[in-house]
């Protein structure tokens, strides 16, 4: 049994005890992107250096998905198997805003500016039955300190 595979290559370091998203950083102007891009969106320099991003950031914006999105492109559970989820933007300090699924979808447990941490979560299986994982952000448990 092999380890679950990332949904796409180059998005995050995996397997890893402390997974990090892999962004790109422009050596010319310092702009950081995620995902990594072939060239800098700000000054056009290329290529961008691979840069492991911060594991923690602040919730910048979020929304909940209470019903299954249109499929395709949505490929997740439908009908009774569907579970509401939330997506949001996480601002990584000094780096970039990352769009990601959130592990918490109850509005009472989410607030703008709260500290969030990267986690790797199951994402079903591919056509060959291999387990897949993707990245998400969840509230930092010790945020109240
Ligand atoms: Zn640049």
Please state the overall shape, judged from the principal axes of the Cα atoms.
globular
Instruction: Work out the helix count.
Output: 0
Radius of gyration: 16 Å
Average per-residue pLDDT, rounded, comes to: 91
SSE class: mainly beta
Helical content (DSSP H or I, runs of 4+): under 10%
Q: How are helices and strands ordered from N to C?
A: EEEEEEEEE
Q: What small-molecule ligands were found?
A: zinc ion
Q: Catalogue the unreliable spans.
A: none
Strand arrangement, major sheet: 5-6-7-9-8
Largest sheet: 5 strands, mixed, barrel
Distance between the termini: 41 Å
Describe the structure.
The structure is a single chain. This protein has 145 residues and is mainly beta. 0% of the residues lie in helices and 38% in strands. The protein has no helices and 9 strands. The protein has strands spanning 5-6, 22-25, 32-33, 49-52, 56-65, 85-91, 97-102, 115-125, 131-139. Strands 5-6-7-9-8 form a 5-stranded mixed β-barrel. Strands 3-2-4 form a 3-stranded antiparallel β-sheet, with no helix packed on it. Bound molecules: zinc ion. Zinc ion binds at residues 26, 28-29, 31, 40, 42-43, 45.
Question: Summed up, what is this model?
Answer:
This protein has 145 residues and is mainly β.
List the helices and strands and how they pair.
Elements: E1 5-6, E2 22-25, E3 32-33, E4 49-52, E5 56-65, E6 85-91, E7 97-102, E8 115-125, E9 131-139
Parallel strand pairs: 1-9, 7-9
Antiparallel strand pairs: 2-3, 2-4, 5-6, 5-8, 6-7, 8-9
The chain binds zinc ion (ZN).
Residues 26, 28-29, 31, 40, 42-43, 45 line the site of zinc ion.
């Amino acid at each position: 049994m092999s380890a679950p595979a990332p949904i796409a290559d180059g998005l995050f370091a995996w397997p890893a005890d402390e997974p990090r998203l892999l962004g790109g950083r422009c050596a010319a102007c310092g702009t950081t992107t995620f995902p990594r891009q072939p060239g800098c969106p700000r000054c056009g320099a290329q290529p961008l250096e691979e840069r492991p991003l911060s594991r923690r950031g602040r919730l910048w914006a979020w929304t909940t998905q209470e019903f299954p999105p249109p499929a395709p492109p949505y490929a997740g559970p439908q009908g009774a198997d569907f579970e509401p989820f939330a997506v949001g933007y996480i601002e990584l300090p000094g780096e970039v805003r990352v769009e990601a699924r959130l592990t918490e979808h109850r509005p009472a447990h989410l607030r703008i500016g709260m500290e969030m941490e990267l986690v790797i979560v199951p994402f079903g299986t591919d056509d060959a039955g291999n387990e897949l994982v993707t990245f998400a952000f969840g509230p930092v448990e010790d945020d109240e300190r």
